[in-house]
Each structure stands twice: as C-alpha cells, then as structure tokens.
Specification:
alpha/beta; 2 domains; binds flavin mononucleotide; 11 strands; globular; single chain; Non-ribosomal Peptide Synthetase Peptidyl Carrier Protein, Chain A; two-stranded antiparallel ribbon; nine-stranded parallel β-sheet
C-alpha cells in the first residue's frame, strides 16, 4: 500500500490515534509488536498555532516510530493552514486530518465529524492542508452524521479529487458514537468508488476480526481500543493474516517484560512521578491472566516510585519461575 510516495507494507496494521493513549511510549510498544503505521493523538489546530505547551507536546515522536502521521483537526481553514505548517515542521511522514471526532463540543462547532454536515467546508479544509504542505495528506472520518445522512461515498470521491492520499473510515455514523456495530459493508462500497488506499476501522477486537476486515478489500486495518488491553493484537493479527493460523499468546513473563518496558518509556517521557501515576491504567491489560490480579493491582496503584514498581513486577516473574 502507498500513502503518496510512502511505501507501507501491504495489509498494513495501524494503531489508531487515541487521545491520552497513543502517545510516543505506547506507539513504540505497539510498533515493536507489529503495528505498521502510527499516528499521534489528535492535535487541535487553534491551541497549536498559539503554542499551547500540552498541544505542541503531542507533536513529539521518536525517529524509530516512522512511518508516522501527525493528526490535526479544526474546521477553520485559516487556522488549519498555520497548523499544517507547524505539523510539517515537526517532520512526520504524513499529515492526517481528523474529520471523525464525534465528541459533542468538537463536532457541534463544526470540527472533527462536524465536517460531515458541510461537505463544502470539508473539502476546503482538506484542500487547504493539501496545498500548504509537501507531505502526503490523509483523512480519518466516519460514515456520515447520522443514519439518514451517510455521505461516505461522496466524501471518498471528493477526497480523491482534492488530493488526499489515503482514507480511514470508522464504520459508524457520528450520532452512533460507539453504539451498535461498525458496519464494514461500507468498506467494499467505498473501494468501489475510489482508488484511494482505504484503511478500515471499528470493532476489530481479535486477529480473526482483522482477517475478516481485510476480506472486504480494504488496504489497511486500524486497531484502537482493544490494543489498550492487548497490544499483542498486532502480532496476533499479522500472524493470522500472513500464515492463516493463530500465533501463540504471550506468556505472563513476556507480558510483564513489555509492561516494564512501557512503564520505563512512559517515565522517561513524562517524568518518573507522572509516569508511574499515568501508567496505572495499563496494569489490567498487561497483567491479564495473573493469579491474584486484583490484589496485585490494588497494591501497584499505591506505589509511587519506578524502582518500587519494578521490584514488584520483577518479583512476580521470580515467583512464577520454577525453582530447582
Ligand atoms: C480513548 C480514545 C481516544 C481517541 N482519540 C482519537 C483521536 O485522537 N483521533 C481520532 O481520530 N480518533 C480517536 N479515537 C477513535 C479511534 O481512533 C477509533 O476510530 C475508534 O476507537 C474505533 O476503533 P476501535 O473499535 O478499534 O476502538 C479515540 C478513541 C478512544 C477510545
């Protein structure tokens, strides 16, 4: 698959952009487990052009994370022009425009999925970004505003004419939020009206789901929520898609080793105190299958220092090792 001049492996697996989740340390973990394509968390254009520290921070990534897209959003073309220049200066491989965020305060003011209600403005925003960068531009969106206004086929044709280089579709409408099921039948229909590389998204929870989504004809599969609980989903999906058989699941030792690597990465990125605190949400996934998980978790969330968490996690591995 190609995103403009960028060669991405065929049947690419993408880690979904997820605000407050897909930061640089987590992206690196998913990449090491098989994610082929990474995105930053969404970056709001207005605070970005005013230099808001937390927003600018979202542009940071490690060289090893390529191919990586910086995702920006906003419904104002003038602001998006400036935001594009700032995103380009951070030197990602491509710029992705979020046209799918369903959150009320964002969509109602015409940003994110709000653009699905005004395709003229949608086009102008995309054109503005395309014309103000030398990088490839991609778009992530939903099927439409609601079930009565599914516009994704028009959007796909419009994007191809406007110069976008790939399209990701979360197969729900804006009004669905996360309700109901993602309707993957649209992926085949979108492939029927455009030559744009298409990345399917929504409700891929298992390797088998990824295989089924590729069967719709899409070029890439994007995985979000389940990766939070199971970043091995990328390895599992790659194995099943390429070899037709399931990969063995990670052992608890491996889960804890990756947990430690992620924790150390987050502490290096956010500072020890914040890193240890922010990491607490990750224990459930990494320690799944551990006997006494709840008790261990209750204990881990009271620990404030990296060294102490490391000791506790290493102790879990030692306790599992057979003694001779
Ligand atoms: C915590 C969280 C944060 C998200 N933040 C973003 C974001 O910044 N940009 C974006 O395009 N989508 C965002 N999404 C949507 C996901 O990228 C994805 O489209 C959605 O979760 C459906 O995929 P899934 O079923 O694999 O989770 C977010 C989703 C979650 C759960």
């Amino acid at each position: 698959m190609h995103i403009g001049p960028l060669h991405i492996r065929s049947k690419a697996l993408a880690l979904a952009p997820m605000d407050a989740v897909s930061d640089s340390p987590f992206r690196q973990i998913c990449q090491s487990l098989g994610a082929d394509l990474l995105y930053t968390e969404f970056v709001q254009s207005t605070p970005l052009i005013h230099g808001a520290r937390k927003t600018v921070r979202k542009l940071t990534f490690h060289e090893s994370e390529r191919p990586l897209g910086i995702q920006i959003y906003g419904g104002d073309e003038t602001v998006m022009r400036e935001a594009t220049a700032i995103a380009e200066a951070a030197a990602p491989d491509f710029i992705d425009i979020n046209c799918g965020c369903w959150v009320k305060r964002i969509a109602e003011r015409g940003d994110g999925a709000g653009l699905l209600r005004d395709l003229g403005r949608f086009e102008r925003v995309v054109r503005t970004v395309v014309e103000n960068t030398t990088l490839p531009v991609t778009v992530k969106t939903r099927l439409g505003w609601d079930a009565e206004h599914i516009v994704i086929l028009d959007v796909a044709r419009m994007l191809e004419q406007t110069g976008a280089q790939a399209l990701t579709v979360h197969c729900r409408t804006r009004s669905q939020g996360y309700d109901g099921e993602a309707d993957w039948t649209w992926l085949e229909r979108i492939k029927g009206v455009t030559a744009l590389p298409l990345i399917g998204n929504g409700d891929v929870c298992t390797a088998e789901d990824a295989r089924r989504m590729f069967a719709t004809g899409c070029d890439g599969v994007m995985i979000g929520r389940v990766a939070i609980q199971n970043p091995w989903i990328f390895r599992e999906a790659r194995h099943l898609v390429d070899h037709g058989v399931s990969a063995p699941p990670p052992t608890l030792e491996e889960q804890i080793a990756v947990c430690l690597r992620h924790l150390r990465g987050l502490c290096a990125y956010s500072g020890e105190e914040r890193g240890v605190r922010k990491f607490r949400k990750w224990y459930t996934g990494y320690l799944a299958g551990l006997p006494d998980l709840e008790a261990v978790q209750r204990e881990l969330v009271t620990i404030d220092s990296l060294a102490a968490v490391e000791r506790r996690l290493t102790g879990l591995v030692d306790a599992m090792s057979p003694s001779f």
